[in-house]
Write a structure and sequence with these properties.
Number of helices: 12
CATH topology of the largest domain: Oxidized Rhodanese, domain 1
Distance between the termini: 37 Å
Radius of gyration: 18 Å
Order of helices and strands: HEHEHEHHEHEHHEHEHEHEH
Helix content: 25-40%
Number of domains: 2
Shape: globular
Number of strands: 9
Structural class: alpha/beta
CATH class of the largest domain: Alpha Beta
Length: about 280
Protein backbone atom coordinates (compact mmCIF):
# COMPACT_ATOMS: atom_id res chain seq x y z
CA UNK A 1 0.00 0.00 0.00
CA UNK A 2 2.79 2.42 0.95
CA UNK A 3 4.77 1.70 -2.23
CA UNK A 4 1.69 2.22 -4.40
CA UNK A 5 0.44 5.45 -2.84
CA UNK A 6 3.60 7.32 -1.83
CA UNK A 7 6.62 7.75 -4.10
CA UNK A 8 9.97 9.33 -3.32
CA UNK A 9 11.79 12.01 -5.29
CA UNK A 10 14.27 9.32 -6.30
CA UNK A 11 11.49 7.15 -7.75
CA UNK A 12 9.97 10.13 -9.53
CA UNK A 13 13.31 11.14 -11.05
CA UNK A 14 13.67 7.62 -12.47
CA UNK A 15 10.21 7.79 -14.06
CA UNK A 16 10.16 11.31 -15.52
CA UNK A 17 10.28 9.89 -19.05
CA UNK A 18 7.94 6.98 -18.39
CA UNK A 19 4.99 7.36 -20.81
CA UNK A 20 2.76 5.46 -18.40
CA UNK A 21 3.32 7.97 -15.58
CA UNK A 22 1.68 11.41 -15.43
CA UNK A 23 2.98 13.98 -12.92
CA UNK A 24 0.59 16.77 -11.92
CA UNK A 25 1.30 19.95 -9.92
CA UNK A 26 -1.95 20.99 -8.19
CA UNK A 27 -2.43 24.72 -7.62
CA UNK A 28 -4.37 25.33 -4.40
CA UNK A 29 -5.88 28.37 -2.71
CA UNK A 30 -4.12 31.60 -3.63
CA UNK A 31 -2.53 30.01 -6.69
CA UNK A 32 -5.02 31.10 -9.35
CA UNK A 33 -2.18 32.48 -11.47
CA UNK A 34 -0.08 29.32 -10.99
CA UNK A 35 2.56 31.41 -9.25
CA UNK A 36 4.46 28.55 -7.63
CA UNK A 37 4.32 26.43 -10.77
CA UNK A 38 5.62 29.24 -12.97
CA UNK A 39 8.42 30.00 -10.50
CA UNK A 40 9.71 26.44 -10.74
CA UNK A 41 8.24 22.95 -10.86
CA UNK A 42 9.36 19.34 -11.09
CA UNK A 43 10.35 18.58 -14.71
CA UNK A 44 7.46 17.21 -16.73
CA UNK A 45 4.77 18.29 -14.27
CA UNK A 46 1.49 19.55 -15.72
CA UNK A 47 -0.39 22.27 -13.79
CA UNK A 48 -3.95 21.73 -12.61
CA UNK A 49 -6.14 24.17 -10.74
CA UNK A 50 -7.75 22.06 -8.05
CA UNK A 51 -11.34 23.25 -8.33
CA UNK A 52 -11.45 23.32 -12.13
CA UNK A 53 -10.18 19.75 -12.47
CA UNK A 54 -11.58 18.04 -9.37
CA UNK A 55 -15.03 19.55 -8.78
CA UNK A 56 -18.28 19.55 -10.68
CA UNK A 57 -18.84 22.91 -12.34
CA UNK A 58 -22.33 23.48 -10.93
CA UNK A 59 -22.59 21.39 -7.77
CA UNK A 60 -20.56 21.32 -4.57
CA UNK A 61 -19.59 17.78 -5.44
CA UNK A 62 -17.20 15.77 -7.56
CA UNK A 63 -17.68 15.03 -11.26
CA UNK A 64 -19.99 12.12 -12.01
CA UNK A 65 -18.26 9.00 -13.39
CA UNK A 66 -18.88 9.91 -17.03
CA UNK A 67 -17.56 13.46 -16.66
CA UNK A 68 -14.59 12.34 -14.59
CA UNK A 69 -13.64 9.78 -17.25
CA UNK A 70 -14.02 12.44 -19.95
CA UNK A 71 -11.68 14.83 -18.11
CA UNK A 72 -9.09 12.12 -17.60
CA UNK A 73 -9.23 10.99 -21.21
CA UNK A 74 -8.82 14.57 -22.44
CA UNK A 75 -5.77 14.92 -20.18
CA UNK A 76 -4.20 11.80 -21.69
CA UNK A 77 -4.94 9.63 -18.65
CA UNK A 78 -6.33 6.15 -19.26
CA UNK A 79 -7.68 3.76 -16.63
CA UNK A 80 -4.22 2.17 -16.38
CA UNK A 81 -2.10 5.35 -16.25
CA UNK A 82 -0.20 5.96 -13.02
CA UNK A 83 -0.87 9.51 -11.83
CA UNK A 84 1.43 11.20 -9.30
CA UNK A 85 0.40 14.41 -7.52
CA UNK A 86 2.08 17.11 -5.51
CA UNK A 87 0.61 20.46 -4.64
CA UNK A 88 1.03 24.05 -3.56
CA UNK A 89 0.22 23.83 -0.64
CA UNK A 90 1.04 20.21 -0.19
CA UNK A 91 -2.44 19.29 1.05
CA UNK A 92 -3.87 19.97 -2.40
CA UNK A 93 -1.76 17.20 -3.92
CA UNK A 94 -3.08 14.79 -1.30
CA UNK A 95 -6.61 16.06 -1.90
CA UNK A 96 -6.23 15.28 -5.61
CA UNK A 97 -5.01 11.78 -4.68
CA UNK A 98 -8.07 11.30 -2.45
CA UNK A 99 -10.44 12.60 -5.14
CA UNK A 100 -8.97 10.26 -7.77
CA UNK A 101 -9.29 7.27 -5.45
CA UNK A 102 -12.82 8.25 -4.50
CA UNK A 103 -13.75 8.66 -8.16
CA UNK A 104 -12.44 5.20 -8.99
CA UNK A 105 -8.91 5.75 -10.33
CA UNK A 106 -6.78 3.46 -8.15
CA UNK A 107 -3.36 3.85 -9.78
CA UNK A 108 -2.50 7.17 -8.14
CA UNK A 109 0.22 8.33 -5.76
CA UNK A 110 1.56 11.33 -3.85
CA UNK A 111 5.11 12.63 -4.36
CA UNK A 112 6.50 12.66 -0.82
CA UNK A 113 7.67 16.16 0.04
CA UNK A 114 6.63 17.53 -3.34
CA UNK A 115 8.48 20.52 -4.73
CA UNK A 116 10.14 21.34 -1.41
CA UNK A 117 11.83 17.95 -0.93
CA UNK A 118 12.71 17.76 -4.61
CA UNK A 119 14.62 21.03 -4.32
CA UNK A 120 16.16 20.06 -0.96
CA UNK A 121 17.71 17.00 -2.60
CA UNK A 122 19.42 19.26 -5.15
CA UNK A 123 17.19 18.28 -8.03
CA UNK A 124 16.41 20.89 -10.70
CA UNK A 125 13.19 22.83 -10.99
CA UNK A 126 12.13 24.09 -14.42
CA UNK A 127 9.80 26.77 -15.74
CA UNK A 128 8.80 25.28 -19.08
CA UNK A 129 5.38 23.64 -19.31
CA UNK A 130 5.17 20.30 -21.10
CA UNK A 131 2.91 20.05 -24.12
CA UNK A 132 -0.50 18.41 -23.77
CA UNK A 133 -0.73 14.65 -23.85
CA UNK A 134 -2.75 13.11 -26.64
CA UNK A 135 -6.33 12.29 -25.59
CA UNK A 136 -6.98 8.64 -24.81
CA UNK A 137 -9.93 6.43 -24.00
CA UNK A 138 -10.93 6.28 -20.34
CA UNK A 139 -13.91 4.30 -19.07
CA UNK A 140 -16.14 5.52 -16.22
CA UNK A 141 -15.46 3.89 -12.85
CA UNK A 142 -17.64 3.55 -9.77
CA UNK A 143 -17.04 5.88 -6.84
CA UNK A 144 -15.67 4.41 -3.63
CA UNK A 145 -18.27 5.60 -1.14
CA UNK A 146 -16.43 3.93 1.75
CA UNK A 147 -13.96 6.85 1.68
CA UNK A 148 -16.52 9.59 2.29
CA UNK A 149 -19.06 10.59 4.92
CA UNK A 150 -21.84 13.15 4.48
CA UNK A 151 -23.37 15.53 7.02
CA UNK A 152 -26.34 13.30 7.94
CA UNK A 153 -23.92 10.47 8.58
CA UNK A 154 -21.86 12.73 10.85
CA UNK A 155 -24.98 13.66 12.82
CA UNK A 156 -25.89 9.99 13.13
CA UNK A 157 -22.35 9.18 14.25
CA UNK A 158 -22.56 11.83 16.99
CA UNK A 159 -25.83 10.35 18.26
CA UNK A 160 -24.56 6.79 18.05
CA UNK A 161 -21.13 7.43 19.56
CA UNK A 162 -18.15 5.12 19.28
CA UNK A 163 -16.43 7.16 16.56
CA UNK A 164 -13.22 9.15 16.67
CA UNK A 165 -13.55 12.59 15.08
CA UNK A 166 -10.25 14.18 14.01
CA UNK A 167 -10.03 17.90 13.22
CA UNK A 168 -7.07 18.73 10.97
CA UNK A 169 -7.36 22.52 11.17
CA UNK A 170 -5.11 25.03 12.88
CA UNK A 171 -5.32 25.54 16.67
CA UNK A 172 -7.05 28.87 16.11
CA UNK A 173 -9.79 27.28 14.01
CA UNK A 174 -10.20 24.33 16.35
CA UNK A 175 -10.58 26.56 19.41
CA UNK A 176 -13.15 28.76 17.71
CA UNK A 177 -10.94 31.86 17.66
CA UNK A 178 -11.14 31.91 13.87
CA UNK A 179 -13.18 30.43 11.02
CA UNK A 180 -10.41 30.68 8.45
CA UNK A 181 -6.81 29.65 8.93
CA UNK A 182 -4.18 32.10 10.18
CA UNK A 183 -2.73 34.34 7.49
CA UNK A 184 -5.85 34.38 5.36
CA UNK A 185 -9.30 35.99 5.49
CA UNK A 186 -11.38 34.94 8.49
CA UNK A 187 -14.30 33.69 6.39
CA UNK A 188 -15.95 30.43 5.41
CA UNK A 189 -18.79 29.91 7.90
CA UNK A 190 -21.17 31.91 10.07
CA UNK A 191 -20.05 30.06 13.22
CA UNK A 192 -16.62 29.26 14.60
CA UNK A 193 -15.83 26.20 16.66
CA UNK A 194 -15.60 22.45 16.13
CA UNK A 195 -17.78 19.37 15.81
CA UNK A 196 -18.59 18.11 19.33
CA UNK A 197 -16.06 15.61 20.62
CA UNK A 198 -13.53 16.23 17.86
CA UNK A 199 -9.87 15.74 18.78
CA UNK A 200 -7.32 18.12 17.35
CA UNK A 201 -4.57 16.86 15.03
CA UNK A 202 -3.21 19.69 12.90
CA UNK A 203 -2.14 18.18 9.61
CA UNK A 204 1.31 19.82 9.79
CA UNK A 205 2.15 17.63 12.79
CA UNK A 206 2.29 14.68 10.39
CA UNK A 207 5.02 16.24 8.24
CA UNK A 208 8.71 16.97 8.65
CA UNK A 209 10.45 20.22 7.69
CA UNK A 210 10.65 19.15 4.04
CA UNK A 211 6.93 18.31 3.95
CA UNK A 212 7.62 14.60 3.80
CA UNK A 213 5.52 12.34 5.96
CA UNK A 214 7.13 11.52 9.29
CA UNK A 215 8.28 7.95 10.06
CA UNK A 216 5.55 5.41 10.73
CA UNK A 217 6.31 5.09 14.45
CA UNK A 218 5.94 8.84 14.98
CA UNK A 219 2.74 8.98 12.96
CA UNK A 220 1.24 6.11 14.91
CA UNK A 221 2.08 7.80 18.20
CA UNK A 222 0.45 11.06 17.09
CA UNK A 223 -2.73 9.31 15.96
CA UNK A 224 -3.02 7.02 18.96
CA UNK A 225 -2.54 9.99 21.29
CA UNK A 226 -5.89 11.25 19.91
CA UNK A 227 -7.57 7.97 20.79
CA UNK A 228 -7.66 6.52 17.29
CA UNK A 229 -6.95 2.78 17.09
CA UNK A 230 -6.86 0.68 13.90
CA UNK A 231 -10.30 -0.81 14.57
CA UNK A 232 -11.96 2.58 15.23
CA UNK A 233 -14.36 4.31 12.90
CA UNK A 234 -12.48 7.56 12.24
CA UNK A 235 -13.92 10.67 10.60
CA UNK A 236 -11.50 13.39 9.48
CA UNK A 237 -12.53 16.93 8.63
CA UNK A 238 -11.07 20.45 8.39
CA UNK A 239 -12.46 23.60 6.75
CA UNK A 240 -12.82 22.48 3.12
CA UNK A 241 -11.47 18.89 3.46
CA UNK A 242 -8.02 19.37 1.88
CA UNK A 243 -6.19 19.05 5.19
CA UNK A 244 -8.50 16.23 6.26
CA UNK A 245 -7.30 14.14 3.32
CA UNK A 246 -3.76 14.36 4.71
CA UNK A 247 -5.03 12.71 7.91
CA UNK A 248 -6.89 10.12 5.83
CA UNK A 249 -3.77 9.36 3.78
CA UNK A 250 -1.70 8.77 6.92
CA UNK A 251 -4.37 6.62 8.54
CA UNK A 252 -5.16 4.40 5.55
CA UNK A 253 -2.00 4.33 3.46
CA UNK A 254 0.78 4.60 6.04
CA UNK A 255 -0.79 3.11 9.18
CA UNK A 256 -3.23 0.58 7.75
CA UNK A 257 -6.47 1.89 9.29
CA UNK A 258 -9.41 0.43 7.39
CA UNK A 259 -12.34 2.42 8.77
CA UNK A 260 -11.29 6.02 8.17
CA UNK A 261 -13.43 8.40 6.12
CA UNK A 262 -13.38 12.07 5.14
CA UNK A 263 -16.24 14.46 5.84
CA UNK A 264 -15.56 16.64 2.81
CA UNK A 265 -18.32 19.13 3.64
CA UNK A 266 -16.14 19.94 6.66
CA UNK A 267 -16.49 23.25 8.49
CA UNK A 268 -17.68 25.27 5.50
CA UNK A 269 -20.80 23.11 5.62
CA UNK A 270 -21.09 22.26 9.34
CA UNK A 271 -20.46 25.82 10.49
CA UNK A 272 -23.32 27.04 8.29
CA UNK A 273 -25.90 24.34 9.01
CA UNK A 274 -29.03 25.19 10.94
CA UNK A 275 -29.73 23.02 13.95
CA UNK A 276 -26.42 21.15 14.33
CA UNK A 277 -24.31 21.37 17.49
CA UNK A 278 -20.83 22.85 17.83
CA UNK A 279 -18.23 23.16 20.58
CA UNK A 280 -15.74 25.86 21.45
Amino acid sequence: MHQQSLVTAEWMAAHLDDPNVVLIDVAGLGQDQLQAYKAGHVPGATPWKWKEMLWDERRRDFPDPQEFARRLGQAGISNDTKVVFYGEGMQFGVYAWWTFRYCGHRNVAVLDGGRKRWRAEGRPLVTDEPGPRAPVACKPAARDESMRVLRDDVLAALERGGNVMLDGRSPEEYSGARVGGPGGPDVGAVRAGRIPGARHLHYTELLDADQRFKPEAELRQLVEARGAAPDNNVIAYCRMSHRATVLYFVLTQLLGYSKARVYDGSWTEWGNLVGVPIEK
